[in-house]
């Protein structure tokens, strides 16, 4: 419809409405109804029909309820934007507020309160007062919400006319449950808004609202309320503090049947009340967990996927607080083929949380099946879940075997996730290094493309160079492709791994170390450049000093840090039955703009990240560990231990002057019995190599070093690089490897 035809159409409607105004001929009501329908349809699709305001009001003098509803809808839509025209509606709305039909009285009062024009507030006082005293429950229901609308328009006039006091009286005495619910909703919103105006008055009013007579009155009538009203009442009851334990038991007895309600919102609201009432009674609180378990599990297996996710989120919070109570119900958290991905991910977290000594085998067996899932995201999450269970020290032997079997599946994403988890397992269980390294050594480095997996593989090559004969040559391939490597994380790990191998097998790695340091110093990434420069200067101080910094004796990581602190979990628990549980964040993290920061859409999922979040592919075992002795792992590959969090200490760099060669601790990860001899021999060989060859081959590269540890190069070395290569080629063959390529 173009502009000219639209104007013509509106002019025709205006003329027809004006002609029908005041007419009492037979069939006029039907014609009006058709015209009203056309006006409302235009208004619905966004066409401005405010020019018909006067004619619509003139035609409102009718007893047809349908016509009045459409007229009220039209008036409510345009009154706020055209306050001068809204004055035309006052007379007929006030007249309808005294109509004999309670439906018309209620509709007229609702429309009158919906005008939202401040200049017309004086016309609302009388009809509202009459509506609150009306004999019909529907009119009182509308009037209760009208008081709230009046408060938003003119708070002072609302309180001066004592409308909140009238709502409090209806809250306790009105026989209609819906009126009571609307009064409660209006009072709660009024008192919340009143905090900014008069905090003392608002606190006193809220205290009256949470008094024992009001709470007991609502609880005794809770079955009469609608589901929405029940949730409102239960939310208020959860804020009530009973005087003694007997009162708590009485309230729980009243609400016992609410746990069997078919509506999940009512069940969760009732559970919140039960948890709140027993939070200070440990034994009873545990019994409450047992009691609410069955209703929650029933809701999980019924209803829509969205409802299942919301209930699972709350159940997950309870499982984290009391995993033992849910350990026998782990089969309820098995994934179904019809579950959407977001539900499957949450169920995997639940399986990880309830795992213990008795059910680990069954859970890991189920998770292993998911590793072959066509959904790559679920396959990754299932492998991570297996690793998390292994880090909890449950049936480690069987889990390690399962993880090593994943490497034989020859799927890139499975291999990538497994390598990351094997690295974490070796950090906690170094005694498994022989079995793990034997399988990891068979993995082709060319098939590993993800940065985290590459970093894990490189770390294992550097850490267990004694057990992997081809370790220097595999790393040499990475060094040759330094420029093509996009991930700074991998380049950082390469520098550390190559330096470690130099301390263990110097003849095979001296040239590779020089190439790595040279490439690192020329790297455009600041962290890579700084680490290469650090290693170069450490080597100038002496090989033994450098080894004690780069490759110290390490202790097994005992406990991996959780991604959430206990304080955050307690805050989320206090906000039970809210979005905080679904988001797994306290409300201030996604409501406070200063904490939340700008909202942006993520590239992969398109959902809104709320507050500070941890990436999906970051495991708890990949956070910073402040007490870990492997000081040169990249920050994204380390974990915070619980001990480090508790003592709050900060790492301070090693005192190089305090190192004594005679007090070097034994290596904890060495597998052969002669490791100490090999280490000393390697250090001596590395020292002799550094005596005759500049590590980088850059004589013009100047580095300022303390005079005490200055590196002096021989002007006439006894052995040049070419001679070394020739002598190396003259040695007898100690081992021959034959590889078959299929």
UniProtKB/TrEMBL annotation:
Which SUPFAM superfamilies does its entry note?
ARM repeat (SSF48371)
Q: Name the residue ranges with Low complexity bias.
A: 661-678
Biological process GO annotation list? intracellular protein transport; vesicle-mediated transport
Cellular localization per UniProt? Endomembrane system
Q: Name one GO cellular component term.
A: endomembrane system
InterPro entries, A to Z = AP_beta (IPR026739), ARM-like (IPR011989), ARM-type_fold (IPR016024), Clathrin/coatomer_adapt-like_N (IPR002553)
* Protein origin, superkingdom: Eukaryota
List the Gene3D superfamilies hit by this protein, alphabetically. Leucine-rich Repeat Variant
* Keyword tags: Membrane, Protein transport, Transport
The UniProt annotation puts the region (Disordered) at 655-678
**A Pfam family per the record:** Adaptin_N
The chain positions of domain Clathrin/coatomer adaptor adaptin-like N-terminal read 29-541
Family matches, as PANTHER family: ADAPTOR COMPLEX SUBUNIT BETA FAMILY MEMBER (PTHR11134)
Q: Which family does it belong to?
A: Belongs to the adaptor complexes large subunit family.
Q: What's this protein's name?
A: Clathrin/coatomer adaptor adaptin-like N-terminal domain-containing protein
């Amino acid at each position: 419809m173009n502009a000219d035809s639209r104007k013509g159409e509106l002019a025709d409607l205006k003329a027809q409405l004006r002609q029908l105004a005041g007419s009492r001929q037979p069939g006029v009501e039907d014609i009006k109804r058709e015209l009203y329908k056309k006006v409302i349809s235009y208004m619905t699709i966004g066409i401005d029909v405010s020019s018909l305001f006067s004619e619509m009001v003139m035609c409102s003098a009718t007893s047809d309820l349908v016509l009045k509803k459409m007229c009220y809808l039209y008036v409510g839509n345009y009154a706020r934007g055209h306050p001068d025209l809204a004055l035309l509606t006052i007379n007929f709305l006030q007249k309808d507020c005294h109509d004999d039909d309670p439906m018309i009285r209620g509709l007229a009062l609702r429309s009158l309160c919906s005008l939202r024009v401040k200049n017309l507030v004086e016309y609302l006082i009388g009809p509202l007062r009459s509506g609150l005293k009306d004999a019909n429950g529907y009119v009182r229901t509308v009037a209760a919400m009208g008081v709230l609308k009046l408060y938003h328009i003119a708070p002072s006039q609302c309180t001066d006319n004592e409308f909140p006091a009238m709502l409090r009286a209806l809250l306790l005495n009105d026989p209609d449950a819906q009126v009571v619910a609307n009064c409660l909703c209006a009072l709660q919103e009024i008192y919340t808004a009143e905090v900014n105006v008069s905090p003392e008055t608002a606190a006193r009013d809220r205290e009256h609202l949470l008094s024992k007579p009001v709470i007991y009155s609502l609880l005794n009538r809770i079955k009469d309320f609608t589901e929405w009203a029940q949730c409102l009442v239960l939310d208020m009851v959860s804020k009530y503090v009973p005087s003694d334990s007997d009162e708590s038991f009485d309230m729980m007895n009243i609400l016992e049947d609410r746990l069997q309600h078919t509506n999940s919102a009512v069940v969760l609201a009732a559970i919140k009340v039960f948890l709140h009432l027993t939070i200070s009674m440990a034994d009873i609180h545990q019994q409450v967990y047992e009691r609410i378990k069955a209703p929650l599990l029933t809701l999980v297996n019924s209803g829509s996927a969205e409802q299942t996710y919301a209930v699972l989120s709350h159940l997950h919070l309870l499982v984290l607080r009391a995993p033992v109570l849910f350990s026998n119900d782990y089969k309820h958290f098995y994934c179904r083929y019809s579950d959407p991905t977001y539900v499957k991910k949450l169920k995997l977290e639940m399986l990880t949380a309830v795992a213990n000594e008795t059910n680990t085998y069954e859970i890991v067996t189920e998770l292993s099946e998911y590793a072959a899932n066509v959904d790559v995201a679920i396959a990754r999450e299932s492998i991570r879940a297996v690793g998390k269970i292994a880090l909890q020290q449950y049936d480690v032997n069987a889990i390690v075997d399962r993880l090593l079997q994943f490497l034989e599946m020859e799927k890139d994403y499975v291999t990538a996730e497994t390598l990351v988890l094997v690295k974490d397992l070796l950090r906690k269980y170094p005694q498994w290094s022989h079995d793990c390294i034997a399988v990891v050594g068979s993995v082709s480095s060319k098939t590993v493309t993800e940065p985290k997996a590459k970093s894990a593989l490189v770390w294992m090559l550097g850490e267990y160079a004694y057990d992997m004969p081809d370790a220097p040559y595999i790393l040499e391939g990475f060094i040759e492709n330094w420029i093509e490597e996009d991930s700074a994380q991998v380049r950082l790990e390469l520098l550390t791994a190559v330096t470690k191998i130099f301390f263990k097998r110097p003849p095979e790695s001296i040239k590779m170390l020089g190439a790595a340091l040279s490439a690192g110093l020329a790297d455009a990434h600041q962290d890579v450049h700084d680490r290469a420069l650090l290693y170069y200067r450490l080597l100038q101080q002496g090989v033994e000093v450098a080894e004690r910094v780069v490759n110290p004796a390490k202790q097994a990581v005992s406990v991996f840090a959780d991604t959430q602190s206990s304080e955050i979990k307690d805050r989320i628990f206090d906000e039970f039955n809210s979005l905080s549980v679904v988001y797994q964040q306290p409300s201030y993290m996604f409501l406070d703009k200063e904490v939340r920061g700008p909202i942006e859409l993520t590239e992969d999922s398109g959902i809104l990240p709320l507050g500070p979040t941890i990436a999906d592919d970051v495991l708890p075992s990949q956070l910073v560990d402040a007490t870990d002795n492997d000081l040169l792992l990249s920050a994204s590959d380390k974990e915070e231990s619980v001990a480090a969090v508790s003592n709050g200490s900060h790492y301070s760099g090693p005192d190089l002057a305090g190192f004594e060669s005679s007090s070097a601790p034994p290596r904890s990860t060495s597998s052969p019995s002669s490791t100490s001899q090999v280490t000393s021999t390697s250090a001596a060989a590395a020292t002799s190599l550094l005596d005759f060859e500049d590590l980088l081959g850059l004589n013009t590269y100047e580095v300022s070093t303390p005079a005490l540890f200055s590196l002096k190069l021989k002007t006439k070395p006894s052995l040049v690089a070419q001679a070394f290569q020739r002598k190396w080629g003259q040695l007898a063959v100690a081992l021959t490897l034959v590889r078959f390529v299929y």
